[in-house]
Design goal:
With about 140 residues, this protein is mainly α. The chain is built from seven helices and no strands.
């Protein structure tokens, strides 16, 4: 199409859909007879990544997911501890049930604490020897 001419909405939709389906932007632009820049602008308008865009698949960061899981777990444990510390609830529990609860709470706390390490503590990190260095010692 010539410059400055409005492209039909159907053409735009088909071209964007083709890129979303995994076809290369250059191939789609050539097939539909539009400039690569124009197609790129259409994709940008819709906040659509292409195959070569790092966030094309909007995959979440694994570190963020793990951090979120840990914070949610800590919040849940905190809520459970607050509920279990109510005197009216404690009076209704048997000694065996309270023993199990305290054991589970202690184990959970110890596991969480065991996973914590100072980042700037260089002495706590394992040292990696050069290949074969420990065998020759």
């Amino acid at each position: 199409m010539t410059r400055g001419v409005e492209h039909p909405a159907e053409l735009r939709a088909q071209a964007v859909a083709a890129v979303l389906a995994g076809q290369a932007l250059a191939d789609v632009a050539r097939r539909f007879g539009i400039a690569k820049g124009t197609l790129g602008n259409w994709l940008a308008e819709r906040n659509v990544g292409t195959v070569r865009t790092p966030d094309a698949h909007n995959e979440p960061d694994l570190g963020d997911l793990i951090y979120g899981l840990i914070t949610d777990h800590i919040a849940a444990i905190s809520a459970q501890l607050q509920a279990a510390s109510r005197p009216e609830w404690l009076c209704q529990q048997s000694a065996a049930e309270l023993g199990q609860l305290l054991g589970a709470e202690r184990d959970t706390l110890l596991r969480l604490l065991a996973g914590l390490r100072r980042i700037d503590d260089a002495d706590s990190r394992p040292a990696l020897d050069a290949a074969g260095a420990s065998e020759n010692a």
